[in-house]
What we know:
The protein is an alpha/beta fold. It has one domain (8-407): FAD/NAD(P)-binding domain (3-Layer(bba) Sandwich), CATH 3.50.50. It contains twelve helices and 17 strands. A seven-stranded mixed sheet has the order 5-4-13-14-15-12-16, sandwiched between helices. A five-stranded parallel sheet has the order 7-2-1-11-17. It has a three-stranded antiparallel sheet with strand order 8-9-10. The chain is globular and about 65 Å long. The protein starts with 7 loop residues before the first strand and ends with a helix.
Amino acid sequence: MGDRVTLRVLIAGAGVGGLALAQALRQAGLAVTVFERTPTVRADRRGYRININRVGGDALAACLPKELFRLYLATSNDEARARVAVFDHRMHPLYATDVGIDGTATPRDHTGVNRLTLRQIMLAGLEREVRFGQEVVGFEQTPDRVRVLLADGSTAEGDLLVGADGVGSAVRAGLLPDVRTRDTGVRCLWGRTTLSPALRDRLPAPLFDRVAVTVAPQGHIGIWGAYRARRPHAETAAAVTPAVSLDPEPDYLMWVLSGEPGGPFADEEQWRTASQAELHRHAADATAGWHPALHRAVREAVPEDCFVQNVRVADQPPAWPAGRVTLLGDAIHPMSPAGGTGANTALRDAAALADKLTAVRHPAGLVSAVDAYETEMRRYGFAAVAESLHYGERFAQAIRHAGKETQR
């Protein structure tokens, strides 16, 4: 420990990848500052339930202090199935498929966690390091430093800048200006519904122990994932880590409606102008004729919890020269949500980068460490992008098959 060089690492973005990296670096004694665009951790509730597979779980174990990892496990969904079950829109089974890197599972390997809860856990102990309401808009590099440019006109300097600022990354735009994300044409309409006892009793059992996919002949699918914490959050935090405060979170069913380009869920103009109430009505209309409990779940959702995601992905760029700026997560390899691996890959990035940085023993070794990380990240990160597109195509094939069956 004594011969480790003291690095100052600047991180753009306080999503799960950026916070995981910050926790790992802080534990290793490196100086870290995280700049987050939103004013508070509660300002962006989008995403709701995150699937955590073995890769993501191992990365969290590597990055988080032991007590925070225990709190993550205690507040996660009690789910151990790595297989996605696919049904028709009336919940008649069609097939099941493995998700993640290899489909193996133990109770810790595959679970679900509420996105806000996980971020609140990951913020614990980083209160001084995370600066909310400060958006990174650019940077300047010198041979031995990097200067971050913030939206309010201020700056900050460090040894390394990590862009963890999502699919619209300003850091990527400055580092790799020729790299563009591409719109797949797929739109996802997200929502969530509180699991009242009446609704819980009516929902099919497969929705509670795995992610379920329903395909409809009209040209769209539903993705369903329940979040049921093992214990109430406040009770769990008090028992595991009393210093951490977690917002209460009712049990809920997350749902996503999506479809192929050119189908009923691909009208970009419609999504750009629709209010949340209109999105909710569209979701209810789109599930009319589905299994009654699924339709009820959509109807009972709160319109304010509905939003649309344009699915964008990135093709792997040629290797670029390593320097004092690097990227992780959606900032470099955004992917379709179909495979459920986006957050897990971002967490893997954080663990891999932290491992390389904490091994640096001399300032001259920093760029070599970044190069080693980027070489590794490009390999598995863009393999995950390809995997997500593969799952998306499988769902598209199921939609087309369902349409043919209906026409017979």
